[in-house]
């Protein structure tokens, strides 16, 4: 018995020793490239391209609606410790200039505008920032991250390119699978929480109506609600899409009013239900397609 206890104590000490050691190593130097991204989809792209060579953190915490985010000083400390900072661009990060001005070592930290080279959409005079909701534009964003990684870590170029190609082909496959079936649709209008799906609409020739605008701003006025009811009835909308962070109650009320069902949709601005980027996009395309067919 005593021997058993001693053995147990030894393995426990060993275990704590090992755990303590790994933790310390990680805190000091993991040898990985530290990437800070602004929002959740970019985290997924950076992880897909960098895999085990990178460590990715997100400025906007999980479960927060990024249009309302304000960075805190601890976020800026963290940002200054990273090797690469990736932002979405196109006005998604309203706080961008403020954050960029706090970067001390501008020669060391590589700053990446993931929207570089994007083919953008302008709605109501504003550029729509929700690029990642297009599989094609997401590929471009991931490519910008890949290029930045190769610039600062040339020796692993092949690995980054291989990872990128693998991710890109998953996006392409999902796109082509959907292109065919969406082409055959007659109904092309859907109603959602905020105007985030402009790029997805462009890819598949659809139109969106939404409770809130492209920057998830604006009160839902009685007039706006009336317009949505009318639009939904005229277009025989059977499903109202609900976003967790954009007036979900209004979407539910609207659905009741027009006799439609409510279905969840992901803007992917924050990670939801443990689904990764490709899973969330596949889900979105499935529910939108099913609501229109
Ligand atoms: Zn948004």
User: How many helices in DSSP terms?
Assistant: 10
Unreliable stretches covering 5 or more consecutive residues? 1-27
Q: Name the structural class.
A: alpha/beta
How are the strands ordered across the major sheet? 2-1-3-4
Mean pLDDT over all positions: 90
Describe the biggest sheet? 4 strands, parallel
SSE topology string? HEHEHEHEEEHHEHEHEHEH
Distance, first to last CA: 69 Å
CATH architecture of the largest domain: 3-Layer(aba) Sandwich
The distinct ligands, each listed once, are: zinc ion
Percent strand: 5-15%
Helix content: 40-55%
Global shape = globular
CATH homologous superfamily descriptor of the largest domain: Nitrogenase molybdenum iron protein domain
Number of separate strands: 10
Number of domains: 2
Radius of gyration: 22 Å
Q: Specify the CATH class of the largest domain.
A: Alpha Beta
Kindly report the CATH topology of the largest domain.
Rossmann fold
């Amino acid at each position: 018995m005593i021997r058993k206890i001693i053995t147990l104590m030894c393995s426990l000490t060993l275990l704590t020793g090992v755990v303590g050691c790994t933790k310390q190593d990680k805190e000091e130097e993991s040898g990985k490239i530290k990437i800070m991204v602004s929002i959740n989809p970019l985290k997924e792209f950076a992880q897909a391209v960098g895999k085990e060579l990178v460590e990715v953190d997100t400025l906007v915490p999980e479960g927060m609606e990024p249009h309302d985010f304000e960075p805190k000083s601890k976020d800026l400390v963290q940002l200054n410790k990273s090797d690469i900072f990736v932002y979405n661009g196109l006005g998604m990060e309203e706080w961008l200039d403020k954050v960029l001005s706090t970067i001390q070592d501008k020669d060391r930290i590589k700053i990446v505008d993931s929207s570089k080279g994007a083919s953008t959409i302008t709605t109501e005079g504003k550029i729509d920032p929700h690029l990642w909701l297009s599989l094609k534009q997401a590929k471009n964003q991931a490519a910008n991250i890949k290029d930045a990684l190769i610039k600062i870590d040339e020796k692993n170029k092949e690995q980054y390119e291989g990872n990128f190609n693998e991710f890109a082909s998953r996006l392409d496959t999902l796109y082509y699978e959907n292109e065919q079936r969406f082409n055959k649709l007659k109904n092309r209008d859907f109603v959602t929480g905020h105007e985030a799906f402009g790029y997805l609409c462009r890819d598949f020739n659809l139109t969106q109506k939404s409770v809130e605008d492209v920057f998830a701003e604006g009160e839902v006025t009685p007039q706006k609600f009336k317009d949505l009811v009318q639009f939904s009835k005229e277009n025989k909308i059977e499903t109202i899409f609900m976003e967790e962070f954009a007036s979900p109650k209004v979407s539910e009320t609207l659905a009741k009013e027009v006799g439609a069902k409510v279905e969840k949709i992901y803007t992917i601005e924050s990670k939801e239900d443990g689904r990764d980027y490709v899973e969330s996009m596949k889900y979105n395309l499935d529910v939108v397609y099913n609501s229109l067919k």
